[in-house]
Specification:
single chain, 215 residues, alpha/beta, TIM Barrel, 7-stranded parallel sheet, 10 helices, 50% helix
Length: 215
């Protein structure tokens, strides 16, 4: 999928589940639940020594079983790891930091890179290096008012928020009304007890509910 198509899916889906530290079969079940709920963008967070091996299997599963869904990677802090995941088929690369070397390898492959930023200067630098979307992180520290304040001097900036986003109407409304383009939802969406009980239908219903909200 081309970079501009990936950007369009982020803007359309708006809610991006963050998948982390799962075995392959659980990961497939979660992906199916997200797909059934209407999500078409998933971020797989790079955590654990063999995380890339799980990603490879999940990427193959998405390509074969879940049409129009894209799977990218997050928590990337160095260019070499970004290159590894792109070789495995990552549709986008997300970082908690701002690193020019990651931009270089992603731009060379025309793969969307979303860097983590916490100041207007970092956002400006990221956009100079080619960022189409910036990740505001950590959201629970910066709060929606930061995103709202950003819109005045930099109204062209597209923002993804992670950290501090809850799977509730009130939380999502707060971020989207402040000007966020999309949000990432991780552990608060994928509750440990829900996954252990394999209540994937319940997860799909919750995601579908979130996707029906209008802001």
């Amino acid at each position: 999928m081309k970079r501009h198509e990936v950007i369009a899916l982020f803007e359309k889906t708006r809610i991006v589940p963050l998948l982390s530290k799962v075995d392959i079969e659980t990961g497939k079940a979660i992906l199916k639940a997200c797909y059934a709920g209407g999500v078409r963008v998933i971020e797989y967070t790079n955590r654990g020594a063999r995380a890339h091996e799980v990603f490879r299997e999940l990427k193959i599963f998405v390509e074969n079983e879940l049409p129009e869904m894209i799977l990218g990677v997050g928590t990337i802090v160095e260019a070499g790891t970004a290159s590894l995941y792109m070789q495995l088929g990552a549709d986008f690369v997300i970082s908690p930091i701002l690193n020019q070397e990651i931009f270089r390898v992603c731009n060379r492959r025309k793969v969307l890179h979303i860097p983590g930023c916490a100041t207007l200067s970092e956002i400006s630098q990221a956009e100079e290096w080619g960022a189409d979307i910036v990740k505001i992180f950590p959201g629970d520290t910066l709060k929606p008012n930061f995103v709202k304040a950003l819109q005045a001097p930099m109204p062209w900036t597209s923002v993804m928020v992670t950290g501090g986003v809850e799977p509730t109407y009130e939380s999502l409304f707060g971020w989207f009304s402040a000007g966020a383009s999309c949000v990432g939802l991780g552990s608060q969406l994928f509750k440990k007890e829900l996954l252990e009980a394999k209540k994937f239908d319940e997860l799909a219903m919750k995601i579908k509910e979130l996707m029906t909200y209008e802001f």
